[in-house]
Amino acid sequence: MLLRHTTAKEIERKALTVNPAKTCQPVGAMYAALGLHGCLPHSHGSQGCCSYHRSALTRHFKEPVMAATSSFSEGSSVFGGSSNLVSAIETIFTVYDPDVIAVHTTCLSETIGDDLTQIVSKANEDGKIPEGKKVIYCNTPSYVGTHITGYSNQLASFIKFFSTATPKKRNVVNLIAGWMEPSDMREIKRIASVMEARVILFPDMSGVLDAPLTGKFEMYPAGGTTQSEMTATGDSKFTIGLGAYSTEDACVKLENKCRVKFEVVEIPIGLKATDRFIVSLSRHANVPVPDSLTEERGRLIDLIADNSKYFWGKRVALFGDPDTLIPLTEYLVTLDMKPVYIVTGTSGKHFDEEMARILKDIPEARFKSGERADMFQLHQWIKQESVDLLIGNSYGKYMARDEQIPFIRLGFPVVDRPGHNFFPYTGYAGATNLAIRILEKFLDHQDRTCNEEKVEFQM
Ligand code: SF4
After folding, report:
1. Angle between the 271-285 and 427-449 helix axes, to the nearest 10 degrees?
2. Residue 264 main-chain phi, psi, to 5 deg
3. Does 1.20.1440.230 match the CATH number of domain 296-452?
4. pTM for this structure?
């Protein structure tokens, strides 16, 4: 009993969060920066923050995550880190030669009040930024928001520093990827490719955080959205944001700066969200939906129909990021399952409204968002009435073990199992992958726990 102190009885808590369902802003900013080709993320703060953010990403992706730090000392913590950042910029371009440095702040530099605009301008005036190189920056104070906020802020900085409108519009649709795995980005590009839609996907971590082992270290792997692609986003005719929490801000900024209209849809997880994404892409790229995608959809429907008796009525608890949980919960309802407890550490009205809509026919469902929404409370709900399945990141394993609940690892971070960055959860292929994983959990659990006379050879 690893969580033996969790009780079924809830006590009103005003100022205490236990096991929050989130991590800190710079983790998201660092992740997004890695989706830009030739970019080195830079953490403006102490070495400890940078080490934590790098290790959080490295442990999840099982890849080396490169990032630099301003290495605040006691002096810079009191008087500001301006000189540290200016010399860091010079050293980084001299030693590591990135095309772009993406600076994000930390709690410490935000508390001091370091002004990144002024510091980077000074570095530029002092000739520390070589010709053709760029330093971009965003603010990521981690005492507000979550890793999703940091991811969103980094994407907004891409728009601010790169997107440029020229008089020549191009027949291209921008796809802004919400927080998802590199395998999902690969799948979204595959869908766009079979639809013959001309797109610019950003950020794009495929080929960066799932690069093949070649025996040769590449400081800047081949993948990532290029600077010229990012610049050209200002000339695209439309933008589709995938996930409101991660991408809406960037969509709005691009429209304001370059007059590119946009639509925000959910990350295409599950049948309906994938339908909406494909319809949106088809309409805005002015391309038909090919038969091959319709067949993929048909195979998914066949799988769902064949196994509906196993899905029906199963109670599920979920935790993670809102852009993932919204379409995932909808997909579970599509499968005739019952998502009954849903928790996200990222706050926002959109999550609450979407959950109320999706769960309107499941009166026993409970959901909570924001900094007070924690996994301790989720566990208490499970103790009050258990569930058949838990879906979330690796931190859920303790609950799953204590309560003997089948557990699917999905979200960030997944640090105790491999494979999550190989197979997508997006698109019809991803929905099929997810449905099969759910079925395997249920059927394995049934085989393991049912009475001997109930063990079936064929299921
Ligand atoms: S919460 Fe603040 S102090 Fe802690 S690791 Fe994140 S940025 Fe650094």
Report:
1. 170
2. -105, 125
3. no
4. 0.96
